[in-house]
Amino acid sequence: MATHALHGGTRRRIRLDEHLPTDHRLSTVYRVGAGLMGLALLAFGILGLTNNIGFFDTGGDQVVGLNTNGALSVLSICVGVLLIVGMVIGGNVASTLNMTLGILFILNGFLNLGLLETDYNFLAFKIQNVLFSFVVGLLLMTFGMYGRVGSALPHDNPYWRARHPDSAAAEQRARALSAPPPAANPRPPDGAG
Question: What pLDDT score was predicted for residue 104?
Fold first, then answer.
């Protein structure tokens, strides 16, 4: 049997900053990822709607090599707009939105993989749509997790500081102690002034 050591004290809850600076490099990555994927989905949805395809038609109409119908086009437009809104907001919102939608895209790929060639395939998915769903999901998750997860995050990373508050405070104290004191204002020479 394994024994577990009991740790006294209270557990600290990780609290991430809700706002990263707008020029922070992480926020830029989250925004670019959300924007690129949002524009691609928006374009796919608009192209699908311009073909006057039936809403739940499963006849095999294609747009840019992917099967589509009216329902999939409208869904793509909605998700694309949501990603573009995440791009505009940026920061942790864009990161969390990217990760969440990435997971949903991957789950959607698996679900529709199981529904191929059945009567329940109301989004008219074919294997290329499933693969596209997997690729978009992985890209969104990668953009969303960039700089948030990993074993070697730099110590100036806000997520590393949130997960290691004691170490971050110790590093900040060490930097404050090792910083040179501010230069004193020189006295003006006698007779000047």
Answer: 95
